[in-house]
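User: tokens in, sequence out, please.
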């Protein structure tokens, strides 16, 4: 059996800045709990407008996970949390039964013309956690384990990797590792997960003679991947994602994820009728799409 199950190209879109979406895909809706995987940017932002800011919008049934390569974002939510995130740190927000948040480009980032780029992921929560309390946690860079080896540096954002364990609290067993590798450096893929994928943000990988170029995500068989010779063919930035297989199907509509269509229908009505909690200090909101 081949270790490489699928090679997924991005679906590119513009929401005021470029976004490459890798998950969900037709052949792979999820990888472990990961149900959305977006590569944001790179982009710079004008000072005379805030058009690209993401206004308050709702979520249910998922957790959002943000890791930046460059720049900064300002997170605000209906729990009253305000948190700037910069490269090295991560934000983890659990929607549970419902949360509202916004993301803004900080004024100093706009004024200096700094490039904003990073990864934002959604993770489905277990069925028995769908109606849990929402929550938010920020993990500074100093709290996240780093594994360094010749030609490579890995940050363990979630789960366990090369005998290091992330402090990030997840709803189910999850793996997320961000790596920066020099050219012709081996990428270790021996991890204990049900499902596994590797994303190339920049550079290129060779997976047993099969190329994986920038902007592509490879879904792997975790058992076969243990024996898969993988190495970089250029200076490369990668992300490994995976974890426990979801226990059942998830329905997705706009920013809502649920095990039942009826739950999504209820969330749509609640947002349209302004029944979700508000983000303190913000009056704008993104309307429910037609």
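Assistant: Sequence out:
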């Amino acid at each position: 059996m081949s270790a490489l199950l699928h090679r997924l190209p991005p679906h590119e879109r513009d929401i005021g800045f470029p976004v490459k979406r890798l998950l969900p895909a037709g052949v792979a809706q999820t990888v472990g709990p990961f149900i959305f995987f977006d590569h944001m940017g790179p982009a710079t932002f004008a000072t005379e407008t805030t058009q690209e800011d993401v206004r308050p919008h709702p979520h249910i049934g998922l957790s959002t996970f943000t890791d930046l390569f460059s720049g900064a974002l300002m997170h605000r939510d209906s729990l009253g949390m305000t948190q700037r995130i910069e490269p090295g740190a991560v934000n983890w927000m659990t929607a549970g039964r419902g949360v509202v948040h916004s993301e803004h480009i900080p004024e100093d980032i706009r004024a200096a013309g700094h490039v904003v780029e990073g990864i934002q992921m959604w993770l489905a929560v277990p069925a028995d956690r769908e109606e849990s309390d929402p929550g938010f946690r920020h993990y500074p860079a100093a709290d996240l384990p780093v594994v360094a080896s010749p030609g490579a540096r890995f940050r363990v954002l979630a789960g366990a990797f090369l005998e290091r364990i992330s402090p990030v609290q997840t709803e189910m067993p999850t793996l997320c590792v961000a790596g920066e590798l020099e050219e012709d450096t081996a990428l270790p893929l021996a991890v204990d997960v049900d499902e596994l994928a590797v994303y190339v943000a920049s550079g290129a990988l060779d997976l047993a003679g099969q190329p994986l170029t920038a902007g592509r995500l490879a879904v792997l068989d975790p058992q076969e991947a243990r024996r898969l010779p993988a190495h970089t063919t250029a200076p490369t930035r990668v992300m490994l994602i995976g974890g426990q297989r979801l226990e059942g199907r998830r329905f997705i509509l706009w920013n809502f994820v649920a095990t039942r269509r009826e739950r999504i229908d209820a969330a749509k009505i609640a947002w349209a009728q302004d029944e979700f909690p508000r983000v303190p200090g913000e009056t704008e909101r993104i309307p429910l799409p037609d």
